[in-house]
Amino acid sequence: MAIFIPEEKISEIKNAADIVDVVSESVILKKAGKNYIGLCPFHSEKTPSFTVSPDKQIFHCFGCSTGGNIFSFLMKQEGLSFPAAARHLAKRYGVDIPARPLSPAQKKKISERESVLDINRRAGGFYHQALLNSAAGQKARSYLSKRGISQKTIVDFKLGYAHDGWDHLLRFFSDKRISPMLLEKSGLILPRKNKSGHYDRFRNRVIFPIFDVNMQVIGFGGRVLDDALPKYLNSPETAIYNKSRSLYGIHRAKDKCRATGTVFIVEGYLDLIALHQHGVENSVATLGTALTADHVKLLTRYARRMILVYDSDEAGIRSAQRCIETFWKEHVDFRREDVFSEDKADTHILVLPTGHDPDSYIFEHGPEAFMAAASESPGIITFLMDCAVRKHGLTTEGKIRVISELQAPLAVINDQIAQAIYIQQLAERLGIAESAVLERIRAVATRQSRAPVFAGQKGAAAGEFPKRETATSNSGLAGPPGVNAGIRFERQIIAMMLQFPEILPEINRLSVLKYFENSDLESVGNMVLKFNPTTGDQVSELISRIENEAQQTIVASLAMEDESWNKKGCLRLLAKFVDTRQKHRSGSLLEEQIKAAEKSDDHALLLTLLNKKQKMAERSEKQKMAILSEK
After folding, report:
1. Helix spans in 221-313 (H)
2. Do 483 and 474 meet the contact criterion of CB atoms below 8 Å apart?
3. For residues 344 and 9, what is the distance between their CA atoms, to the nearest angstrom?
């Protein structure tokens, strides 16, 4: 039975539980100073970068940037919801969670969800037995056999068969006294148009139960046994099933994804099953929809490297291109190939040879050939380049269009070596001067820096490629070299707030956060000010109050570092930050006015503006000294 967990019980669980004990059950930890380190369970690595702090009761991986508190760890490791993780810890540490009265609306929602899960479980068993044992299921068994699907795979994936009739499932549940209205909410039956009753949604189809990460059946897919249309039929959206947040096969793939650090993403049920049957178990499938932001968030819990596998036809290419914007928004680092980004999340596109989908390819050529093709799959920048050249050709007009199409993604590559190599590659392919391409890329980069488009920044403009200025995917105090100086400065201030809370009154007095440019960091800073942690172990409490997973990671990352802060040093840092941002904001406008006065030969105005600039500099210096003179 689902229950409400009071906030005071959450605090009691945190106080009773020990993150080192919990993590040690799945990670071999070794003492390193006052922390513990081990190999990260969330990505493949050879050198330990996963750090656990017993003092702060948090964890952080400096390789894949995953971090959080004890609840976050269980949620990621076991695929649990927050309430389930809390109940698990409560049971382990002997914390009693009394039932609290729920509102009628809460009771109705919980009851409906649990009822639909139970119905799906029973329906899955009904379909599975029909495939395995019924005479009518023989044609479905023959169909699967012709497709090369083994008996073991049928059992592993609990495949089923829906009888060729209007009410087989309806009568099955009627015998168990399950109301048609509740069955309708599960999506398994539909009302007749004349309102005289209901009929089964799935009829004469192979059934693919859809499991969530907790092995619960949340929906179904059905495929016809001939050429009838629609070829595939899926469950509708229900209280427990949302296709934009669900992935077929994730329940069987998650552990292998963690072990390999890689996930293959395909589009069809049988594509996914064929890969698993041939040993490529770190694979999942989308469910009748393009890859979504929620899919990416789910997969980054289990793998850092994503390989999207598509058919070679135009529909497959379009599907691959549609996914690109999703990856930009979710901060997955596909702007560089593996050679430039071995420890970052990266994304590749595997387009199979003409006439093949993943199912046919792996059956015909085997898993070794599939893995060999995957190892040579291009990163998305190279993929975009190939697509643009194929689309526009290498005429003079075609070359111009190719450069126009690629200038935005090339401009956002922060790794200068990687960017230079891609520009050189594009210039050689088009047969034009490298300097001409570079000039165009620099012009685009300048425009993007003036109008940031990353979702975590203010002033985002839709439809453009983002400038790589995000704190959500960075680890360490200052962030990696690809993050610009301004964002590193803001991260350092958040780290100061978490590690040296004595400075929080000054942060508030000087309104430091209003000068932040990254909205994720600004939001985290405001939460720190509001929560006002006074000791290190309260960081775990702060993380529990943050709902955004990326922001939880920021806190864990920056709190894990141990810097030697003192008030004078903190004030000096704040003075420099405030001074720099004030100069930037007021100085930019003044510089534009000065240039305009020079251009118009307005000497009187020019003199006034120059005097104003001098006074601003003097005021800035006085303010800086005033801050530094504070005790």
Report:
1. 250-260, 269-277, 293-299
2. yes
3. 37
Q: Which two tokens stand for residue 89?
A: 């810890």
Please compute, for residue 288, the number of CA atoms within 13 A of its CA located in the half-sphere on the CB side.
Answer: 16
What CATH code is carried by the domain that includes residue 186? 3.90.980.10
CA 324 from chain center: how many Å?
13
Instruction: Answer yes or no: is 156 within a domain.
Output: yes
Same domain, 362 and 278: yes
219 lies in some domain: yes
Q: Model confidence over 37-83: pLDDT tens digits?
A: 999 888 877 889 999 998 888 999 988 888 999 999 998 888 787 88
Cα–Cα distance list, 501 to 372, 467, 534, 535 (Å):
52, 32, 6, 8
Residues 34 and 77 reside in one and the same domain = yes
User: Which of 214, 234, 254 lies at the terminal end of a domain, its last residue?
Assistant: 234
Same domain, 371 and 247: yes
Query: In the prediction, which pLDDT does 596 show?
Result: 75
Q: Distance of CA 290 to CAs 223, 285, 315, 422, 539, Å?
A: 19, 10, 12, 28, 37
Q: What is the pLDDT of residue 107?
A: 65
Burial class (CB in 10 A: 0-12, 13-18, 19+), 362: buried
CB neighbours (10 Å) of residue 543? Answer: 26
Distance CA 487, CA 481 (A): 11
How many whole angstroms separate alpha carbon 48 and alpha carbon 27? 11
pTM beyond 0.70: the answer is no
Is residue 624 domain-resident? yes
| CA–CA dist 499, 489 (Å, integer) | 15
Quote the CA–CA distance of 74 and 13 in Å, as a whole number. 13
Instruction: Looking at the structure, tell me whether residues 372 and 249 fall in a common domain.
Output: yes
CA 419 to CA 179: how far, in whole Å? 61
Cα separation, 341 vs 421, in Å, equals 14
For the chain, how many residues are written?
631
Dihedral Cα 556, 560, 566, 571, nearest 10 deg: -30
Label residue 163 exposed, middle or buried (CB < 10 Å: 0-12, 13-18, 19+): buried
Written as one letter, the residue type at 215 is M
The domain that contains 272 carries what CATH number?
Answer: 3.40.1360.10
Burial profile 117-156: b = 16 or more Cβ within 10 angstroms, e = fewer:
bebbebbbebbbebbbeeeebeebbebbeeebbeeeebee
Six token digits for residue 331: 């901060």
Q: Are residues 309 and 222 in the same domain?
A: no
pLDDT (tens digit per residue) in 554-591: 888 888 876 778 888 888 888 888 878 877 766 566 66
Residues 214 and 312 in one domain: no
In Å, how far are 313, 329, 469, 595 from 450, measured between CA atoms?
39, 19, 12, 18
C-alpha 448/C-alpha 285 separation (Å) is 34
Looking at the fold, whether 362 and 395 belong to one and the same domain comes out as no
Domain presence at residue 131: yes
Residue 419, domain extent: 381-468
Of 51, 19, 222, give the one whose Cα is nearest residue 140: 222
Give the domain CATH number at 60.
3.90.580.10
Find out whether the peptide bond into 230 is cis, omega within 30 degrees of 0: yes
Same domain, 337 and 373: yes
Show which of 234, 263, 284 is a domain's final residue: 234
238-262 burial, b for 16+ CB within 10 Å, e for fewer? bbbbebeebbbbbbbbbebbbebbb
Model confidence over 221-263: pLDDT tens digits? 999 998 888 999 999 999 889 998 899 999 999 888 878 889 9
